[in-house]
Amino acid sequence: MSTSELKRPESVLVLVHTPALEILLLERKDPPGFWQSVPASLENGETPLDAARRELVEETGLQVGADALQNWQQTNRFEIHPRWRHRYAPGVHHNTEHVFSVSIPAPRPVRLAPDEHTAQLWLPADAAANKVFSWTNRDAIIELVRRLSGHSRS
Questions:
Q1: How many domains, in total, are found in the chain?
Q2: Which of 31, 38, 64, 84 has its CA 20 to 30 A from that of 133?
Q3: Residue-wise over 78-87: b if at least 16 C-beta within 10 A, else e?
């Protein structure tokens, strides 16, 4: 893999939800059974907000204005799963993830990117938090519930 093809170790996580806290989850094509909210690696020169907007369209077909996306001003740092480390420069083992959310009025089918995802689910927040693979995704769902119920993170 050439240097220009290597992934930047910075990404976004976008929680798509309804006011009733139904959460959109996508099942990755590889590996099957890996459920997640909408993720995106930042491309060179791209801001987290730009990546969040781009990936919403690419992976779900949802087009929202920049003002609809809530930037939590929160980052997570996590170890890159060994199965995907070959996509990054040698020695890169951690990723920085920026968290966003967007509310849509009600669950609706989304257009999946067939090269990345095979299925979609709308689940209540507690079930979604239990289904996602990533701890950062789980924690973001739990935090979303806290934020929308008026309780701040302790």
A1: 1
A2: 64
A3: eebeeeebee
Q: State the residue range of the domain holding 31.
A: 3-148
149 appears as a binding residue in the annotation: no
110 lies in some domain: yes
d(CA 66, CA 142): 24
What's 86's domain CATH number?
Answer: 3.90.79.10
Neighbours of 154 (CB within 10 A): 4
- Show the tokens assigned to 104: 């849509």
Q: Is 27 annotated as a binding residue?
A: no
Q: Note the pLDDT of residue 154.
A: 46
The answer to whether 28 is a known ligand-binding residue is yes
Global confidence as pTM: 0.90
Distances (CA, A) of 23 to 19, 50, 59, 61, 94: 10, 22, 15, 16, 26
| Residue 153 pLDDT exceeds 60 | no
